[in-house]
C-alpha cells in the first residue's frame, strides 16, 4: 500500500486495499492488532486523517481506530457525492507504456443548486440568459448543442451513474418520477433532452444504452435482438469477501455487451460469471442473463529450472487466498515434482457443507510483464481452474475501439481462433495488489479498464439476452487447514480416540525400495552401507557453502571462551580418526555437492557424549532453493510402537534397557552420497575463521539431523536381526525403538544370555550395545560387567518416563512450572503438552484440563486473553494435581511370576456430559494369589455438539473396546482366557446385545464393537 494524499480518491483506494488485506489475515486467524502495524498504517494516512485521529484518540491509536476513522471518511465522501453533482470520472485517454494520463471532468456546481435544479435550468433555456454545457464545462453553448461529446454514449459517460432523465444521483433511471417533456421529441419522462435518441447519434460504445420511453419500451418487442434495452436486467451483488468460500458460475455468453443495433457483428471469447437468469415469454425463447466479467490477461510465464517459457491466459482473483496453476501448465513448463513441496488444503466444492482435504503440489514460477520485468510467485498445482468452454459473442466493433486506444491485456479479445480459452493461471490475493495498479477507467455503465503491467484488463458487468445456458464452476478460495487447530480438535473429535489403526503412506514404500536397492554389507569392515532415499533419484542441490561458513563463524563466536570449541575439536579429530568423517582433498568448483550447517548441543548431565553435533539438513540455499531434507523420503514412522513397548516392559519380572552407541554414526554412507554431507571446520581454533583457516570434511556415515536417518537406522537394525533365528533376535527386534532396547527377563540367567548374545549380534554390524541397566539387585553377573558398557545411574529414562531401577517404579515426567502468571489459552495448551502420559495413568486429571481448553475455544478466547476467575481457580487446582501426580510412583511389574497364572483383561467405560473415558485392568490369578493393575487408560472430551448421554456412553464403550483390543495385541497374552467390557448404561448394553435396527450413528459403533476377533463378555 502506497502513502496516500489528501485526495479523497486516494483515501478510498487505501481503505479498500487495507480492508482487503486485513480481512484475509483475520480469515486465517492472524492477529492484526499491534503497535508496529498501527504505526506503519498511521504513516500512510493523509495529514488530515492523522490530525483527526490524534484529536480523537490522542496517543492511543490502534489498528481498529484507524480502520474506523477511514471507514467514516469513506462514508462521508459517498454522502457528499450523492448531494453534489461532482464526480471523479476518468475519461478514455490513450495508453502509453503502462501509464495513462487520465484527466478528471466534473459537472459544475453553482452555489447551492442540486443536479436536478441545474438540469432543469438547462431544459428551460428561458430560465438562464447565458448558455452553458454540463458536458464540456463551456459557456458558449447549451448541453444539447455540445460538439465535444456529440453522441449519447459520450454524454452518458460524463454523467456517470446519474439518472438519464433528470441527472440525479439519488435514484436509477427506471425509478425516476420526473415527468418533464423532451425539447426535441416531445416524449414525457423518457430522457434528458441532451440524450434524445431521435436527435443525437447513439455512438458505437456498447457499454451504454438509451432507455427510450420507459412506459412504452416495456411493451415493445425486441425482434430477437439480444442487446435491446428492454432485455437488460439488474443483478444482485455477489460478495467477494475472502471470509466466505464461494463458487461462481462461468457462462458461455457475451463478455462485452451493450446496445448495438442488429446484434453482434462477430464472435469471440471471454471469462465471466452468470449471476442470475430470468425467463420472459417476450424474449421468444431467449434467456436474460446478467454477466460479471472477470479480470483476465495473457501472461508470459517462465520456469527458471527448465528454462521453459509459455504464454498463458490468467485470471486475477482477489478473493482467492492462494495462486494456482493447472497441471497442464505444470507439464508444459517441465516443473520437477522433486523440487516441489506438498501442501494439505481444505477445498469447498459447490454446495458442500464440509471441506474436502486434498494434497497439492507447491512450487515457484516466474511472471514476465511487457517490459520483461520478472516476478517470482509461489503457486499451487490443481487439475484445472475453469473447465473448457466454447467461444461466445461480443461486439467486435467496441473491442476494436478499445484496442485502438488501449493495450488490452487479454489477447483473446482479438478474436483469433487459434488462441486457447483455457485459464491456466489464477493469481490470488497473495500477489494481486502487486500486479493490479491504478484506478479503474470507466468505459461503460458497469464496465471498467484496470491498469496492469500486462496491459489494461477489462472488468465489470452488463446484461444480455442469449439462448445459451452453458455454465461452468470454478473455485475462488481454498482454505489452509490450521495444523494447531486440527490438533486441538482431536480433543473432542469423535473418531480420533487416540488409538489409531496402522496407516500406510505410499512414500514409505518408495523409501523401502530405495533402501533395499542401496543396502550392502562390507564383510571386512563388518558394517552396513546405505544411500539416502532420494525422491525420484534427484540430487540437484545448491552448494550452501556460504551459509555453512557463516554458521561456523557464529559457532566460533558463541563458544569462544567457554571451552566448547576445544571439545568440538577433540570430537572432530576423534571422528576423523575413526573414519566417521574424511577430509575433502580435491574440491572442484564444478563438482555437485552440498554443505550442511550444524550446531553443537551441550548436555553436561549426560553420562556419555557431552557434546552432540546436529546437522541442519533443512537449510535451504535461497528463497527458491531446496534443502537436503526436501529431496529425501522420510521413510516409515515408528512412533506408533511406543505404547506397545511400554506395555510389554511392565510384564517381565526384571526390566532391562540398553542403547546402541552412536548408532547413526555407525551406519556407513555409500560413496556417491557423501559429497552431499559436507561440513566445514576450523584448522586452528585460536585464529579467526577465514577461508585459509577452514578445512572441508564430509561424512562417511549417516549424519544426525537428516530426516531419513531414523528410518535408515531402523531398517538396518531390522534387516540385520532378521538374519538370525532364535528367541533373543526375535525379542530384540520386537523391543527396540530406534537405538534403544526396552525389554525384560525373568531370571538372572536370562539376563546373562540376553547381554552376551545381543552384544555379539550387534557387534557383527559394528554396533556397540552399551549403557545396560536392570532392576535386578545384587546381580553377580551384572556387577562384573565392564563399567564402560553399563549405566551407573539409579534413575533411568525410558521413553519419556523416569524409571527408578532400585524400587522398580515408573514416574510420569513433566516440564510445566506455574509461576502465577495470568491464565490464558496459550498457558492451558502449554500445561497440557508438557505432561507426558503415554499409558494414560493420569487421564482423570488431564481430562479436566482438556475440557477447560475446549471451553476456552468455544468462548473464542484469543491466545493471550485472560480466562475468567472461576476458570483460573480451576486451572490452579489442576496444576496442583498434576504436580502431585508427577511424584507418585507407579509399579513397573504388573505380572504374577508363578506357574499356571490365568490372565483376565477388564475394560471399563463411563461418560458424562463433558467427556467419556475407558480404562483397562490386567487381573492375574494363581492358585493362592490375585493381582490387579491398571495397564492402560484413555479419556476424551465430548464433541462440542454434545450428543445425548446414552450416545456418549456408547462412545465410552467404543473407546473401551478399542483400548482392550490395543492392549491384547500389544501384550500378546496367549494364556488370557477371559475379556470383559463393563458399561454402567443399560441402554448401551441393549444396543450391543440386541439385534434391533438402530440409528446410523449407533449402528456403526455397535457394529465395530461386535466385530471383535476374540470373545468379549459384556457386563
TrEMBL record:
Region (Disordered), start-end ranges: 207-262
GO molecular-function term, one example from the UniProt record: aspartic-type endopeptidase activity
Signal peptide: none
Polar residues: bias regions: 219-255
InterPro entries assigned to the protein according to its UniProt record, in alphabetical order: Aspartic_peptidase_AS, DNA/RNA_pol_sf, DUF1758, Retrotrans_Pao, Rev_trsase/Diguanyl_cyclase
Domain of life: Eukaryota
GO biological process: DNA biosynthetic process; proteolysis
Domain DUF1758: 310-462
Protein name listed in UniProt: DUF1758 domain-containing protein
Organism name: Cacopsylla melanoneura
Amino acid at each position: 500500500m502506497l502513502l496516500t494524499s489528501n485526495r479523497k480518491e486516494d483515501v478510498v483506494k487505501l481503505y479498500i486495499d487495507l480492508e482487503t488485506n486485513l480481512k484475509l489475515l483475520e480469515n486465517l486467524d492472524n492477529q492484526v492488532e499491534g503497535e508496529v502495524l498501527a504505526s506503519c498504517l498511521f504513516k500512510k494516512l493523509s495529514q488530515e486523517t492523522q490530525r483527526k485521529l490524534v484529536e480523537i484518540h490522542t496517543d492511543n491509536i490502534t489498528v481498529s481506530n484507524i480502520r474506523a476513522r477511514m471507514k467514516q471518511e469513506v462514508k462521508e465522501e459517498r454522502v457528499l457525492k450523492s448531494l453534489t453533482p461532482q464526480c471523479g470520472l476518468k475519461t478514455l485517454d490513450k495508453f502509453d507504456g503502462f501509464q495513462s494520463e487520465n484527466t478528471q471532468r466534473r459537472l459544475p456546481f453553482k452555489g447551492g443548486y442540486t443536479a436536478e435544479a441545474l438540469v432543469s435550468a438547462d431544459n428551460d433555456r428561458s430560465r438562464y440568459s447565458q448558455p452553458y454545457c454540463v458536458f464540456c464545462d463551456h459557456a458558449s453553448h447549451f448541453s444539447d448543442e455540445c460538439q465535444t461529446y456529440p453522441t449519447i454514449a459520450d454524454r452518458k459517460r460524463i454523467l456517470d451513474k446519474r439518472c438519464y432523465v433528470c441527472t440525479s444521483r439519488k435514484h436509477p433511471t427506471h425509478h425516476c418520477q420526473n415527468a418533464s417533456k423532451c425539447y426535441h421529441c416531445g416524449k414525457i419522462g423518457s430522457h434528458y433532452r441532451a440524450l434524445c435518441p431521435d436527435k443525437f447519434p447513439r455512438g458505437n460504445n456498447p457499454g451504454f444504452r438509451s432507455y427510450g420511453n420507459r412506459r412504452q419500451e416495456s411493451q415493445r418487442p425486441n425482434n430477437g435482438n439480444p442487446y435491446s434495452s428492454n432485455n437488460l436486467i439488474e443483478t444482485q451483488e455477489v460478495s467477494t469477501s475472502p471470509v466466505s468460500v464461494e463458487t461462481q458460475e462461468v457462462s458461455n455468453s457475451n463478455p462485452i455487451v451493450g446496445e448495438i443495433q442488429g446484434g453482434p457483428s462477430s464472435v469471440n471469447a471471454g471469462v465471466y460469471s452468470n449471476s442470475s437468469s430470468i425467463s420472459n415469454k417476450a424474449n421468444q425463447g431467449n434467456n436474460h442473463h446478467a454477466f460479471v466479467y472477470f479480470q483476465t490477461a495473457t501472461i508470459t510465464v517462465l520456469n527458471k529450472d527448465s528454462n521453459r517459457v509459455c504464454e498463458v491466459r490468467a485470471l486475477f482473483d482477489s478473493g482467492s487466498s492462494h495462486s494456482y496453476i493447472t497441471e497442464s501448465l505444470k507439464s508444459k513448463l517441465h516443473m520437477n515434482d522433486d523440487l516441489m513441496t506438498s501442501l494439505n488444503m481444505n477445498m469447498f466444492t459447490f454446495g458442500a457443507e464440509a471441506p474436502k482435504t486434498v494434497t497439492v503440489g507447491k512450487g515457484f514460477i516466474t511472471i514476465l510483464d511487457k517490459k520483461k520485468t520478472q516476478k517470482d510467485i509461489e503457486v499451487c498445482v490443481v487439475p484445472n481452474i475453469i473447465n473448457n468452454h466454447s467461444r461466445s459473442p461480443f461486439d467486435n466493433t467496441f473491442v476494436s475501439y478499445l484496442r485502438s486506444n488501449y493495450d488490452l491485456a487479454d489477447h483473446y479479445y482479438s478474436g483469433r481462433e487459434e488462441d486457447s480459452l483455457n485459464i491456466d493461471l489464477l493469481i490470488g490475493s497473495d500477489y494481486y495488489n502487486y500486479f493490479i495498479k491504478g484506478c479503474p477507467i470507466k468505459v461503460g455503465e458497469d464496465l471498467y479498464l484496470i491498469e496492469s503491467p500486462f496491459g489494461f484488463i477489462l472488468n465489470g458487468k452488463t446484461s444480455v439476452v442469449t439462448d445459451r445456458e452453458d455454465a461452468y464452476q470454478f473455485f475462488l478460495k481454498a482454505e489452509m487447514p490450521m495444523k494447531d487447530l486440527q490438533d486441538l480438535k482431536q480433543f473432542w473429535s469423535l473418531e480420533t480416540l487416540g488409538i489409531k489403526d496402522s496407516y500406510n503412506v505410499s512414500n514409505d514404500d518408495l523409501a523401502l525400495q530405495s533402501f533395499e536397492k542401496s543396502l550392502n554389507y562390507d564383510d571386512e569392515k563388518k558394517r552396513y552401507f546405505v544411500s539416502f532415499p532420494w525422491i525420484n533419484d534427484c540430487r540437484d542441490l545448491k552448494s550452501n557453502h556460504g551459509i555453512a561458513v557463516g554458521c561456523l563463524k557464529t559457532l566460533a563466536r558463541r563458544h569462544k571462551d567457554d571451552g566448547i570449541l576445544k571439545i568440538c575439536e577433540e570430537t572432530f579429530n576423534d571422528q576423523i580418526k575413526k573414519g566417521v568423517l574424511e577430509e575433502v582433498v580435491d574440491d572442484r568448483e564444478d563438482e555437485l555437492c552440498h554443505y550442511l550447517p550444524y550446531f553443537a548441543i551441550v548436555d553436561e548431565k549426560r553420562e556419555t557424549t557431552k557434546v552432540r553435533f546436529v546437522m541442519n539438513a533443512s537449510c535451504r540455499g535461497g528463497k527458491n532453493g531446496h534443502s537436503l531434507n526436501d529431496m529425501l523420503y522420510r521413510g516409515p514412522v515408528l512412533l506408533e510402537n511406543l505404547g506397545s513397548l511400554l506395555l510389554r516392559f511392565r510384564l517381565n519380572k526384571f526390566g532391562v534397557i540398553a542403547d546402541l552407541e552412536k548408532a547413526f554414526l555407525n551406519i556407513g554412507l555409500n560413496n556417491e552420497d557423501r559429497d552431499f554431507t559436507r561440513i566445514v571446520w576450523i584448522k586452528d581454533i585460536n585464529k579467526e575463521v577465514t577461508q585459509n583457516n577452514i578445512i572441508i570434511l564430509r561424512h562417511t556415515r549417516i549424519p544426525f539431523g537428516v530426516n531419513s536417518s531414523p528410518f535408515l537406522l531402523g531398517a538396518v537394525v531390522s534387516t540385520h536381526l532378521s538374519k538370525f533365528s532364535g528367541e533373543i533376535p526375535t525379542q530384540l527386534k520386537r523391543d527396540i525403538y530406534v537405538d534403544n532396547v526396552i525389554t525384560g527377563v525373568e531370571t538372572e540367567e536370562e539376563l546373562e544370555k540376553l547381554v552376551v548374545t545381543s552384544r555379539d549380534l550387534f557387534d557383527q554390524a559394528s554396533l556397540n550395545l552399551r549403557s545396560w541397566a536392570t532392576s535386578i539387585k545384587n546381580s553377580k553377573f551384572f556387577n562384573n560387567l565392564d563399567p564402560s558398557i553399563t549405566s551407573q545411574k539409579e534413575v533411568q529414562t525410558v521413553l519419556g518416563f523416569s524409571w527408578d531401577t532400585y524400587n522398580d517404579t515408573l514416574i510420569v515426567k513433566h516440564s510445566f512450572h506455574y509461576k502465577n502468571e495470568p491464565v490464558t489459552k496459550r498457558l492451558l495448551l502449554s500445561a497440557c503438552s508438557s505432561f507426558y502420559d503415554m499409558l494414560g495413568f493420569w487421564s482423570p486429571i488431564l481430562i479436566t484440563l482438556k475440557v477447560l481448553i475446549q471451553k476456552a475455544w468455544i468462548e473464542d478466547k484469543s491466545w493471550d486473553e485472560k480466562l475468567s476467575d472461576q476458570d483460573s481457580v480451576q486451572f490452579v487446582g489442576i496444576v496442583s494435581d498434576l504436580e502431585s501426580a508427577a511424584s507418585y510412583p507407579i509399579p513397573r511389574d504388573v505380572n504374577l511370576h508363578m506357574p499356571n497364572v490365568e490372565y483376565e483383561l477388564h475394560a471399563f467405560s463411563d461418560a458424562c456430559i463433558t467427556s467419556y473415558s475407558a480404562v483397562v485392568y490386567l487381573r492375574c490369578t494363581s492358585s493362592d494369589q490375585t493381582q490387579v493393575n491398571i495397564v492402560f487408560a484413555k479419556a476424551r472430551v465430548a464433541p462440542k455438539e454434545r450428543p445425548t448421554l446414552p450416545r456418549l456412553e456408547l462412545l465410552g464403550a467404543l473407546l473401551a473396546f478399542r483400548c482392550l483390543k490395543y492392549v491384547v495385541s500389544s501384550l500378546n497374552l496367549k494364556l488370557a482366557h477371559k475379556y470383559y467390557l463393563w458399561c454402567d448404561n443399560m441402554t448401551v448394553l441393549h444396543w450391543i446385545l440386541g439385534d434391533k435396527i438402530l440409528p446410523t450413528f449407533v449402528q456403526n459403533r455397535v457394529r465395530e464393537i461386535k466385530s471383535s476377533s476374540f470373545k468379549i463378555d459384556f457386563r
